[in-house]
Amino acid sequence: MSETKGKSQQPAVQTTGHAWDGDIQEFNNPLPTWWLWSFYASVVFAIIYWIFFPAWPIGDSYTKGVMNNITFVNDAGVLQTSHWNTRARLLRELQEGDAAAVSKVYLEKVAETSYSDILQDAEMMTFARSVAKGIFGDNCTPCHGAGAAGVIGLFPNLADDDWLWGGTPEEIEASIQHGRFGFMPAFKAVLDDKQLDDVTGYVLSLSGHEIERGIVKRGRDIFRGKEGGCYYCHTSAATGLKSQGAANLTDAVWTVADVIGADSLEAKNSAVRNVIEKGVQRRMPPWSERLTPEQIKLLTVYVHELGGGQ
């Protein structure tokens, strides 16, 4: 008896009253009060959030919420009101924050400054590179690539010093503003197979490839004569015309025919002949309707620097 009284008595554990196999019972352990109130509060918060912010998908759309409009200037420079979303919020912060005020000052300065002065001003060049890198990434990377190396046959390499349409800031700005249309007619229906082989051989010889003299002579005559008429765009010296976007064929820089990637003279011959046979049609869209004059100017400086300038 004394031993029993000396021990602290444990309170009886509450059960739900359910029992299995005679002696297995279910304890009744309620959740802590603080946890329950936290759960209820989260439910109330969720309901309020669903009312005020975008939340539930409905078909191909979603609930927009109420009383959460954000007004900002969109990419086209037009004042726009949108329901709350992270993109609209970011755009407004970029336009109204402290960084936006500094950026606005620099943009106004860029608009009033000539290209020659911008290129000589280290502070303005730092600003131009930082802003234009994002503009290039959003608009130019899909075709020219993140490193601006382009794709042979499709999109020109902007990181070398070969400029089809001219590499001065003014020429680059014109390309971005108005776009470009690179065109070379197909000669498959104009020249026979032998003539195509001769012209191909002559073109390869211009960049240092060893081609049989007879082929080179015949190809040169076609290139500079009425049969081919190639000199109209590429000039008699084959150095090209920037006004036409006609490539310089003497510098070993290939923008359409993948000569560099060919592993044999036969493969190089095939690559060049294919271009002569089928011609070229490449179009760059104008950006004057999508980018502001200040953005085009910054992008011009950025592209000019990518190619080493001219």
Task: Explain what this protein looks like in three dimensions.
The protein is mostly helical and 310 residues long. The chain is 47% helix and 10% strand. The protein is built from 13 helices and eight strands. A hairpin with a 3-residue loop joins strand 1 and strand 2. Helix 8 crosses helix 13. The N and C termini lie far apart (107 Å). The mean pLDDT is 87.
Helical percentage: 40-55%
Q: Specify the structural class.
A: mainly alpha
Strand order of the largest sheet: 1-2
What string gives the helices and strands in order? HEEHEEEEHHHHHHEHHHHEH
Tally of strands: 8
List the helices and strands and how they pair.
Elements: H1 2-6, E1 15-20, E2 24-27, H2 33-52, E3 57-58, E4 61-62, E5 70-73, E6 79-82, H3 86-96, H4 98-112, H5 115-120, H6 122-139, H7 141-144, H8 169-178, E7 180-184, H9 193-206, H10 213-224, H11 231-234, H12 265-278, E8 280-284, H13 293-306
Antiparallel strand pairs: 1-2, 3-4, 5-6, 7-8
Helix pairs in contact: 3-4, 4-13, 6-13, 8-13, 9-10, 9-12
Nutshell version of this structure?
This protein has about 300 residues and is mainly alpha-helical. About 45% of the residues lie in helices and about 10% in strands.
What features would you highlight for this structure?
310 residues; two-stranded antiparallel ribbon; 10% strand
